[in-house]
Recover the amino acids of this structure.
């Protein structure tokens, strides 16, 4: 694997992570981080949508007229999201119900459009596919980290399995109800950004 | 009375930002000062008010199978809703932009730059998708919901912009500066907004 391809794959996961560094695509994501299961499915869906739509947009890149490209991109992305949504409805109906509107909102997730604009329109299909998948994965990673803490401290479970032993509850330990509520997701992301920027000093804002 | 309750609910209790995180991208990006936040907020209210009733009519009379469907009671086109909603939103934003430019240059100067941004604002598409879930009885309810959630979004972005203007004078740890502290601020504002949650109308 050559160095450029490696960069395409690994940069979006840490160094230029779409959520913590570029601050893209927060909209459709935070509400699904109450439980790991939902976050996991959401992460997979976003990976599939970013990868496939970058791939298709890259194949079509020489035939898309510049003036109407936004609409065409929206149509490509919407098509992929419909495929993912129908698949989830068919094979994982309860999760689809739980994620409700947020699957549909992948369409307006800035990561997908952003990667098509910034990468897929100027690169060959295979690197575009990898770039899309890597950005989806960088996004999914943050979702899963946030969901891990929220589920662990909020419900004492991971993937629905009890991990905090009953003995601890008997001693007076209690689940933190605040972690389950929406505002805590934002604060957790703030803390993740804080940690990342303390390590990578060049990301700090003046 | 029902309208009033729906209106208040959609502003405070089901606030687009603090309970559903919709429109976060532009919410964080365009909240550096109150003036631009004001412009974007007004544009969001306006576009929601125009697109949501249209998507409501589309959803009830064409996409959903049932008595009201004009294509016949058995035609189920609901799988097309994502692509049609986003197409309607993109088209309307484009038309609104052209009309405003033609008839009110002063309004265009203040809203103009924000209008294209709004086509990909999750709050707009989110409003339509929630409308689909909520089963409103008529266009009036859908419009009230649109107005309420638009005003809720507007209040949130103006409040955040005001806080961020003040925040620029405070001494924040270097790694937390900028976007980090903004996330935490929004979280704290969300906790404040949660006090409305117990209110039942």
């Amino acid at each position: 694997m050559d160095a450029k391809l490696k960069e395409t794959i690994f940069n979006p996961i840490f160094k230029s992570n779409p959520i913590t560094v570029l601050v893209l695509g927060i909209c459709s994501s935070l509400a699904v981080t109450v439980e790991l299961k939902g976050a996991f499915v959401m992460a997979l869906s976003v990976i599939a949508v970013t990868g496939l739509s970058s791939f298709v947009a890259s194949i079509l890149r020489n035939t898309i007229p510049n003036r109407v490209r936004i609409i065409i991109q929206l149509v490509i992305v919407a098509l992929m999201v419909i495929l993912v949504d129908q698949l989830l409805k068919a094979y994982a109906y309860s999760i689809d119900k739980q994620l409700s509107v947020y699957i549909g909102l992948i369409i307006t997730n800035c990561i997908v459009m952003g990667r098509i604009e910034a990468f897929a329109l100027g690169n060959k299909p295979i690197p575009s596919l990898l770039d899309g998948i890597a950005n989806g994965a960088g996004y999914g990673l943050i979702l899963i980290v946030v969901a891990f803490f929220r589920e662990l401290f909020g419900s004492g479970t991971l993937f629905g399995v009890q991990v905090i032993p009953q003995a601890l509850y008997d001693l007076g330990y209690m689940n933190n109800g605040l972690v389950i509520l929406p505002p805590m997701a934002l604060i957790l992301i703030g803390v993740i950004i804080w940690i990342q920027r303390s390590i990578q000093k060049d990301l700090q804002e003046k | 009375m029902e309208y009033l309750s729906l209106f208040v609910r959609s502003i405070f209790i089901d606030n687009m930002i603090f309970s559903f995180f919709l429109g976060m991208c532009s919410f964080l990006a365009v909240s550096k000062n109150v003036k631009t936040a004001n412009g974007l907020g007004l544009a969001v209210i306006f576009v929601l008010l125009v697109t949501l009733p249209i998507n409501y009519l589309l959803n009830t009379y064409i996409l959903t199978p049932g008595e009201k469907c004009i294509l016949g009671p058995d035609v189920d086109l609901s799988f097309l809703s994502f692509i049609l909603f986003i197409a309607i939103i993109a088209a309307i934003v484009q038309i609104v932009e052209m009309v405003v430019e033609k008839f009110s240059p002063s309004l265009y100067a203040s809203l103009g730059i924000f209008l294209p941004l709004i086509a990909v604002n999750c709050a707009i598409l989110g409003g339509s998708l929630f409308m689909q879930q909520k089963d409103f009885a008529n266009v009036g309810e859908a419009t009230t919901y649109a107005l309420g959630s638009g005003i809720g979004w507007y209040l949130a972005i103006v409040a955040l912009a005001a806080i961020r203007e003040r925040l620029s004078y405070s001494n924040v740890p270097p790694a937390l500066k900028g976007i980090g502290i903004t996330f935490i601020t929004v979280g704290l504002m969300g906790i404040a907004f949660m006090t409305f949650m117990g209110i039942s109308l």
Observations:
- Chain B touches chain A through 48 residues (CB under 8 Å).
- The mean pLDDT of chain B is 83.
